[in-house]
Structures are given as C-alpha cells and as structure tokens.
User: What shape does this take?
Amino acid sequence: METRFVKESRCYKTSRVFPTDVNNHNTLFGGKLMAYIDDIASIAASKHSRSFVVTASTDSVDFLLPIQMTDSVCLESFVTWTGRSSMEVFVKVITEDLQNGERAIAATAFLTFVALDEHKKPLPVPRVVPETEEEKRLHETALRRAEMRRHRREESKEFADYLTVKFSWE
Assistant: This one.
C-alpha cells in the first residue's frame, strides 16, 4: 500500500483580521474562521490523496481564545490519519499579536474528508506516516476519534428519522 508522510500534506494560511471580519465583540467572526478551516483542511486532504475531496464532516471546532483585530491568524493543517478512502485532517489556529509578537493557540479543529475519483466515487488513499511527536500523538489518538465519529453519525441518522421536512408555515 502506498504511504505518504504527514509533512507532505502540511499547509499554512495566514491572514490579517480586518474590521469587516469581526463580530459585535470586535473579535474574529467564528463563521469566518470556520470557512478558513474548511478551506485549508481541504487543501491538506487533496495534497495527501492527490484527488478531488469532499468534506464528510467537521468533527470539532474548539474556539479557545478570541482573535482580536490587532492579530494575524495562521492556520496550520495536515492529515493525521487515513481510512480506506477517508482522511482525518487536523487544523491548528495560531493567533499572533502583531504589535508585540505574542502567539497562542486560538482554536483547533478536526475534519474528515473523502477522496473521490472522476466519477465522484470513493477512492483509496495512501496510508499516512507521522514523524514528529505532535504528529505521532495525533495519529495514536485518531482511532478513538474515528469511533466517536462513527457513533455520532449513527445517532445523527437515527435522529434525522424523527425530523420533518415540512416548514412550520405549511
């Protein structure tokens, strides 16, 4: 089976926080950050699989610190684990105060992507090989997260059976 190192999928995105990017608390709007996260994670998944990818789930986004207008935000993304056609992607959001250079982890996220062929059918992906301590730790804990995803997906499907598609005004 083909393998790729985690570092082969690693990518970065750095942005400045502008006044149009903030919410009523003058911190980066969460939806804006989530769009950045999905974008950079999809690039990491595509680099690993060298194929089209689709977001299967946003497993978690944990907002740890507010991101201020005086900050830049740097997202680091890489594939941490692979299944047959799925890839778990980790995104680390680092905020940096541009005035004093202080950095902190502002958010973390895990997303799952599926590789697709030209007919939009699932495509096998290379196995991922971690090298650094951070990569190894994320890889070692991935099976637990995969099991939680599977359980949550089953619960979501059951829950969807109770939901209606009829609008309240109908």
Summary: The longest helix spans residues 30-49. The chain has one domain: 3-160. The mean pLDDT is 96. Residues 149 and 155 are 10 Å apart (CA to CA).
